[in-house]
Structure formats: C-alpha cells, structure tokens
Write a sequence for this structure.
C-alpha cells in the first residue's frame, strides 16, 4: 500500500515544480534581506545556525521518511492560504516579520500538500524550528527590551548593595560614585535571551528524550537569561567602580558577554543533570510509550 501511495505525486510533477518555483521566486528576496538582518544585528546572529540545524533534524528522521507513505493532502492548502494572507498583510503594512513568518507557513503547506500528513508529522519539529530564525519587529523589541533593562538595572544595584558598593538607580541608569552606567537596549539581555532560548531548544532535543523535561528546559532559559544578564550588568558596575569606566568597556565588555553566556549554558547543563535525577521514572516510561504510539 505504501509503495503505491508513493507514486501519486509522479502524476502531477509539473504542478509541484510550478509551486516550488513560485515559492522560490517570491521568498528569495525576503530570505536575502533576512540574512542581512542577521549579519547586521548581533541580537539575531544565531539565525545563521537555524537553517542548518533544521536540515540536520530532518536528515536525522530519514529512516521514518523512507517508510512513510507519500499521500498528497489538500489540507496543505490551509497553511498555504495562511502563509499567503500573512505575506499580503506584511506587504501592505511593510511588516518584515509577517513576510518572513509566511515563508515558514508556506513551506509547511508545500510539505503537507505534496507529501501528505505522515511526512508532515515527521517533519513538523524541523519545520517549526525555523520560526526561531525570524527576527522580532522593532516595535515589539522596544516593548520587551525596556522592562528587561529595568530588571537588569534593579537586580544589579541590589547585588552592588550586597557587596557594599554605593549605587543609585534612576530608571535604567545606575549612578556610581565615580561614574554613571547606562543600561542600554543592547544590555537588556534580549540578545542572550533569544540565543539562549534557541540553545535551550537544541539542548533539550539532543540531551533529553522526555517531552516534560524538554519543556522545562526551554522555559527555564528565560529566567536564566535574565539572571545571567543582571550579573553581567553588576560585574560591569564592579569593574567601573574599582578600576574606572574604561575597564568596563570595549573588549572587556564583550568578553563579559561571552563568559556570562557560557555561564548560562552551564546552568542549563546543570539543570538537565538535576532533572535526570529527580524526574520520576514512571513519567519517562509513560512519555516513551506515547512517543512509540505516535511513530507507529
């Protein structure tokens, strides 16, 4: 039955080729400018890794894909229509995020339309992973970044108090006896938050087989990123207070970013090990049984 089903798309090769060619023509400029966005904005430089990782996740599923029947499904028109609508809204409103999201929706629709529900179900995670490559609109960044700046400044000042370093916070500005620190948007932690969420998804996929553990790890990336970024701001304050403002700028500041992100990764690793010890075995067996029934 499965071998017969796999021959269905051969009846309409020209229609399939036409749809793919149309999608390439429409989305090539959109993907090109999104790549320029990744290159010019350090907040989204991790976008270059999303595509190769998604391809790897799909390649890893090749044993399931070999046995899955190819049965084109008209349900693929639903995400295709949604992708077209999202693209039209993005074009009319000059909203880049909508146009970029529409690429992922269109790709999902093509897979479902041309290959069917079984193949789509197998590739759902790699396809959904592509949403992480889409940069957030600046309007949303402004809404999210400023509260993160205030949190980072507030927690950093509390830590400086604990270390007996006199500091006064006014909004996102930290006043020290010898200098003033401005917690800018770049120091809000949004960059590390986006990168750490992506890292959390990849980490959970490779190292945790329980869906419950995966969800916990991905969600925990948010508070970990906030705490680690607050520590980075506090460390900047300590260096500025002890050694002067220049000691907390330039290469030293960039090195702090690398070390704090490394610390966040180690916290994720420690959390995964802790979950492996405390996660009930019966939950693991239950979720393993569910996954087996899903792939069967």
């Amino acid at each position: 039955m499965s071998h017969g089903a796999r021959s269905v798309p051969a009846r309409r090769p020209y229609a399939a080729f036409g749809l793919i060619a149309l999608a390439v023509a429409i989305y090539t400029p959109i993907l090109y400018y999104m790549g320029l966005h990744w290159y010019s904005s350090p907040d989204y430089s991790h976008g270059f890794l999303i595509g190769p990782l998604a391809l790897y996740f799909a390649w890893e599923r090749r044993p399931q894909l070999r046995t899955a029947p190819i049965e084109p499904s008209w349900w693929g028109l639903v995400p295709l229509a949604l992708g077209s609508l999202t693209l039209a809204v993005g074009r009319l409103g000059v909203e880049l995020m909508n146009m970029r999201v529409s690429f992922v929706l269109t790709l999902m629709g093509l897979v479902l339309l041309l290959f069917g529900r079984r193949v789509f179900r197998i590739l759902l995670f790699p396809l959904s992973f592509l949403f992480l490559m889409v940069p957030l609109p600046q309007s949303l960044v402004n809404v999210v970044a400023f509260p993160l700046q205030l949190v980072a400044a507030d927690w950093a000042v509390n830590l400086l108090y604990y270390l007996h370093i006199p500091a006064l916070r006014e909004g996102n500005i930290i006043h020290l006896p010898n200098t003033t620190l401005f917690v800018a948007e770049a120091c809000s932690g949004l960059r590390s938050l986006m990168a750490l969420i992506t890292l959390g998804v990849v980490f959970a996929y490779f190292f945790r087989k329980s869906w419950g553990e995966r969800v916990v790890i991905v969600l925990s990336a948010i508070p970990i990123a906030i705490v680690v970024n607050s520590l980075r701001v506090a460390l900047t304050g300590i260096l500025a207070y002890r050694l002067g403002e220049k000691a907390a700028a330039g290469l030293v500041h960039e090195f702090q970013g690398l070390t704090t992100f490394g610390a966040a990764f180690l916290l994720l690793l420690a959390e995964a090990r802790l979950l492996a010890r405390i996660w009930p075995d019966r939950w693991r067996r239950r979720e393993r049984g569910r996954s087996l029934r899903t792939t069967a």
Remarks:
- The longest strand covers residues 168-170.
- The two ends are 16 Å apart (CA to CA).
- The longest helix spans residues 211-243.
